[in-house]
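pinging the channel bc i need a second pair of eyes. not urgent but kinda urgent?? the chain im working w is below, pasted from the shared doc
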Amino acid sequence: MSVAQEKKTLKITQTGSPIRRTKDQRATLIGLGLNKMHRTSELEDSPEVRGMIRKVRHMVTVAGE
């Protein structure tokens, strides 16, 4: 793969509890592959993933930006 074809990835780690959060925030965590504390998921950097991260930014940390 050339540098132009490489896909950037983001490592997302859940740091906050979904307890007392809205259903859509819980569903977003599951969509990101997170549903337990300190679980890490590696996803391709895309506008859709960025939007999901923005929605639950108070419960996750992101590496690889």
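so The longest helix spans residues 23-31. and The radius of gyration is 12 Å. — does that match what u expected or am i reading it wrong
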